[in-house]
Amino acid sequence: MVNETLARLSDLAFECAMAGYVVALVCYGIEFAGRRIQPTRDEAASAQLRAANRAGGTTVITRPEGIGVVPPADKAPWGVRFGRSAVVVTVVALVANVISIVCRGFAAGRLPLANMYEFTSMICAAATLCWLIVLARTGARQLGLFVMLPVALLAFLAGTVLYTPAGPVVPALNSYWKWIHVTTISLSASVLLVSGAASLMYIVRARYEKRLVSAQQADDTARIADLEGGALAKLPSLATLDRIAYRTAIIAFPVYTFAIIAGAMWAEVAWGRYWGWDPKETVAFISWVIYACYLHARATTGWRGVRAAWISVFGFVAIIFNLFFVNMVVSGLHSYAGLN
Question: Which residues contact 163 (CB under 8 A, 6 or more apart)?
């Protein structure tokens, strides 16, 4: 028996969350597109090193006056104000998303993870929470645009294409292993979303720095000024992006591993076998292998940097492919998730 009042409240809360994610995305984008006022501490240090190398000498890295200091709210440039507003809107949207999930669960009398709509809603909430934790620890707000872009897209798809009214789960699949499997797979995929975004931005930042070094070696003053004043100059440093990508992946990978094992246990209960190379199982295993390769490559000195980042990006693409293409296009035992 579905509580229609709570179900409607859940839908309204998710609509608010979806709108909030879009507004936050726009605010992050405005801040990212705005003119950079001053370099960060890492950028200032890097600039000193590049200047010293061009002169053939050495330099002592110091913190220039005002670098890295957050200006007061009343003196902050408009781009920074939009960035701060984006964080506030992100928090509000996350709260609305959580309210939607909780109301959905009480309305249906079960964990709200029985179909693609509920699963995607959970990914949006968990990915946003992971992003806010990363932001609190690193201050890399410039990455918000690239994290919130997939979150906003997923929320839009969930509210339109994937939406399914609250209802009971298919009886044959109603096992406690289902809830363990789907919960852990959604949480790990959410954290890997942040890792994938950081890895992709690492690749972009590395290419930007390569072009900057090339311009400096050619002593092309106009090109240097153009690059250093562009939007890509505001991306977090390579070290920060690499740290975010690696630490989030190393947290999510064991959870993802357990999720696959729990899925095998659930498959034995539902279908009488642990593994049957169903399309979704196959792609999940491929994703696991890719991330295992990424963590191994990241721990190997010769495969750090851009090559390791590309492996992380491929891993996240495999997870997204498994989440949408396999469920929506390929017929298999996992085609029950509210789309067929």
Answer: 117
